[in-house]
Design a protein that fits this description.
By secondary structure, the protein is an alpha/beta fold. It folds into three domains: 6-87, MurE/MurF, N-terminal domain (Udp-n-acetylmuramoylalanyl-d-glutamate--2,6- Diaminopimelate Ligase, Chain: A, domain 1); 103-316, UDP-N-acetylmuramoyl-L-alanine:D-glutamate ligase; 325-475, Protein-Tyrosine Phosphatase, Chain A (Alpha-Beta Complex). Helices cover 32% and strands 22% of the residues. It contains 16 helices and 23 strands. The strands form four sheets. A nine-stranded mixed beta sheet has the order 9-10-8-11-12-13-14-15-16, with helices on both faces. It has a seven-stranded mixed beta sheet with strand order 21-20-19-22-18-17-23, with helices on both faces. Helix 5 crosses helix 10, helix 12 (347-358) packs parallel to helix 13 and helix 15 packs parallel to helix 16 (455-462). The longest helix has 16 residues, at 287-302. It is globular.
């Protein structure tokens, strides 16, 4: 019989709550009754748009082991065992703190303007080959996601990887102190969330809050190529980092790129990682992915894990959903490729996606097609930042652009007429023209901020497959 993640006694000790009902053990933790698994401990969080207390009975109907609540009712008590607390969010944080305290794991916290989730997933993948590894699910990187991810960490975890995000100053500090990382990694600092900051320097300072919870003797990993490297290094040193490992192309970088061969569906990398030469194949294409792979291997080195095994594992890495995942669609009109970058977008990640699309080799008479939605939360310079992407489209050799959103319209207007595939105010209106334009051999990359709703365009393209109208979705494993 497997060891439970949480016993009633452990949860009570962690939260200071009061037990009501039968004794229980839980195999997981959930704050969403829609995705709850049988055996989970359900925590009824009062969010901005809904209150988890309204779903307690439904959670029990799906097999919840128990529920943590602050406003119990007779119906809840009749549905299953409860832990009654004063504040359910604080109780979730308490579970996270207790899970962190009981584990002997080496912990990594990952933040940055671009590449957090992909880097976190790469670390999860390569370290899983070397020991029991736990990581944040999806992009669970905010005030709910971080404590939830910690609360789900088994006591026997050897490596823990936690993504930490923000869009306002002061958000990362309490999350870093909750995670207490041994290694804190900042992938890069870019002009993202500028609607909430006065300068990129302020963004750098907010990202540097990741060091506020750094363990004594901990390691900071920083992008040596980023113009804010010195600023971040100074903050890490001020917060007591015992060691700083830099990565990048800079000749002085500790994890240094020596040679990079970019290909359509992979990259071949030669690097020096803290004095050790490594050569590896990286199954996810793109220069930006290759640069972040240096940070991944720097983390492996800082954790005293096996660098050679980690580098070997890179050949089997897959892109997270919505962040470069590739599909070949077997359609009646002929096969074409979809690159799903639909999860989010900012100027840096959009340029990286366009550069990766430039490496694609369309088959036959196929074309490189960029499907681009508005980039949100980038402040007063948004129009200019969108318009500037036209130069990147041209540099990448993109044949055809489909665009949606009022800001992306500014970019679309300055493109050569031959590259203007179609424009619409929103992704829904863009879909018919995009569908009609696709032909055999095309490679279509779809990217935009989450609020631009580019995901449905990916689903539409995948749905053009020849299996009764449903895509075969043959993931190319990259």
């Amino acid at each position: 019989m497997s060891t439970p993640l949480w016993t009633q006694e452990d949860a009570i000790a962690a939260t200071g709550g009061k037990a009501e009902g039968a004794r229980w053990t839980a195999s997981g933790v959930s704050i969403d009754s829609r995705t709850l698994q049988a055996g989970d401990l359900f925590v009824a969080i009062a969010g901005e748009n809904s209150d988890g207390h309204a779903f307690v009975e439904g959670a029990f109907a799906k097999g919840a082991a128990a529920a943590i609540v602050s406003a119990p009712t007779d119906k809840m008590r009749a549905a299953g065992p409860l832990v009654v607390v004063g504040d359910t969010l604080e109780a979730l944080n308490a579970l996270g703190r207790a899970a962190r305290a009981r584990a002997q794991a080496r912990i990594v916290a990952v933040t940055g303007s671009v590449g957090k989730t992909g880097t976190k997933e790469a670390l999860r993948f390569v370290l899983s080959e070397q020991g029991a590894t736990h990581a944040s699910a999806a992009s669970y990187n905010n005030l709910w996601g971080v404590p939830l991810s910690l609360a789900r960490m088994p006591a026997d975890t050897q490596f823990g990887i936690f993504e930490v995000g923000m869009n306002h100053p002061g958000e990362i500090t309490p999350l870093s102190k909750l995670v207490e990382p041994f290694v804190a990694l900042i992938t890069t600092v870019e002009a993202v969330h500028m609607a909430f900051f006065n300068s990129v320097e302020e963004i750098a300072d907010a990202k540097a809050e990741i060091f506020d919870g750094l363990q004594e003797g901990g390691v900071a990993i920083l992008n040596r190529d980023n113009p804010h490297y010195a600023r971040l290094r100074a903050r890490a040193e001020a917060r007591g980092a015992a060691r700083i490992i830099s990565f990048g192309e800079n000749p002085q970088a500790d994890a240094r790129l020596d040679k990079l061969a970019l290909k359509e569906d992979c990259s071949c990398v030669s690097a020096t990682i803290c004095g050790q030469k490594v050569t590896y194949k990286l199954a996810v294409p793109g220069r930006h992915i290759a640069m972040n792979s240096l940070a991944v291997l720097a983390c492996v080195k800082a954790l005293d894990a096996d660098l050679a095994l980690a580098a070997l594992a890179m050949a089997q890495l897959k892109a997270p959903k919505g962040r470069g995942e590739r599909h070949v669609v077997a359609a009646p009109l002929g096969d074409f490729t979809v690159i799903d970058e639909s999860y989010n977008a900012n100027p840096a990640s959009m340029r990286a996606a366009l550069a990766a699309l430039a490496q694609a080799k369309p088959a036959g008479g196929g074309r490189r097609i960029a499907v681009m939605g508005d980039m949100l939360e980038i402040g007063e310079t948004s129009i200019a930042m969108h318009r500037e992407l036209a130069a990147d489209v041209e540099a990448a050799g993109i044949d055809l652009v489909f665009a949606c959103g009022p800001h992306m319209r500014e970019m679309f207007k300055v493109l050569p007429a031959a590259a203007q595939g179609g424009y619409a105010e929103n992704s829904e209106a863009l879909a018919p023209g995009l569908r009609d334009a696709i032909r055999a051999g095309d490679v279509a990359m779809v990217k935009g901020s989450l609020g631009s709703r580019m995901g449905p365009l990916v689903e539409m393209l995948l749905g053009m497959g020849d299996d009764d109208g449903a895509s075969l979705r043959r993931n190319r494993g990259i």
